[in-house]
């Protein structure tokens, strides 16, 4: 009976994580339709993306602290509910500033759900298979990203972008209530109190801080692939929205396969620094490939980025979970801390890239992005990873 209960709990988390990703990526995929209605260009896409990432970044740490006090299940439920409701209301936006504001609240909800979801899935899989559990969790994210990029592009063509956004919002609300029904209630200590000394212990962990900066560098580059590739293929290489959506979806689809495989590899090797830096180099090469300016090099780039993305996030989250030295209640905060700084990459990088495109064109912009990504990911070489933290 316990196995069946856990199976349902895992399935509800995976479903929610999948829809979570749909609500993350579908706006970028269908922005060509939104831009027509609101008279926007690539800079408008940059603003919408940046707004969501601000919400994601600001609420990572508060979400981890709240989860320490009230439990990750409750925080995951409210996070999913907020992000999905905001996505639903986006379908009714009449002004572009409303869309930007609602995407901020989508980001707030996503921030609350994420780290709590990692904690819940890791506990359900057990410590010895924690890497696999986090890999499956991330795989669900990339499956949802693929659906958001491709399926929601097709859906927007068939029924319009507003009904397509409304449908993903409704699915997310359903996912929130599945969490409430099937995920076991949090086992909270009545005497537990959030202490400033414990918060300092979690947030001053050197390895977690380096992982956070490494993810900042990785996301600074990878977000350009996931956000701008479809629009780039449509606008610059003159592909149809459907074919552009198929190519754009290769990144998350490859990450679906890579995430659990890299989780199992990490469970065996425990070589986090080697795995994340190698993934960063793969991203640098991919950005340069897109700069070549043809469909085939872009296809190859999206595949490589998918594999690298599946590796770097799975390994970083599990390594941070194992390295935190405070009490078990702070596991969610440890994940939030590692995830926090990289969210601000989603604020500055799309805006900088869109300005570069307007000033110098896509080719130079992709090459510049490749260069600064290489500099940023090299931070992980500055310290040695901890040993024996599992």
Content of β-strand: under 5%
The poorly predicted ranges are 1-5
The named CATH superfamily: MFS general substrate transporter like domains
* Secondary-structure class: mainly alpha
Shape verdict: globular
What is the number of strand segments?
A: 0
Mean pLDDT: 87
Radius of gyration: 20 Å
Largest sheet: none
Rounded to the nearest angstrom, the distance between the terminal CA atoms is 29 Å
Strand and helix order: HHHHHHHHHHHHHHHHH
User: CATH topology, what is it called?
Assistant: Growth Hormone, Chain: A
CATH architecture, please? Up-down Bundle
Write the layout of secondary structure elements.
Blueprint lengths: L1 H28 L1 H8 L3 H17 L1 H11 L1 H19 L5 H30 L4 H30 L1 H22 L13 H8 L2 H30 L5 H8 L1 H20 L2 H20 L3 H29 L7 H13 L1 H16 L1 H16 L13
Structure, briefly:
The chain is mostly helical and 390 residues long. It contains 17 helices and no strands.
Describe the structure.
- With 390 residues, the chain is an all-alpha fold.
- The protein has a single domain (2-181, 204-382), classed as Growth Hormone, Chain: A (Up-down Bundle), CATH 1.20.1250.20.
- The protein is 83% helix and 0% strand.
- The chain contains 17 helices and no strands.
- It has helices spanning 2-29, 31-38, 42-58, 60-70, 72-90, 96-125, 130-159, 161-182, 196-203, 206-235, 241-248, 250-269, 272-291, 295-323, 331-343, 345-360, 362-377.
- Helix 6 packs antiparallel against helix 7 (130-159), helix 10 (206-235) runs antiparallel to helix 17 (362-377) and helix 16 packs antiparallel against helix 17 (362-377).
- The longest helix has 30 residues, at 96-125.
- The model is unreliable at 1-5 (pLDDT under 50).
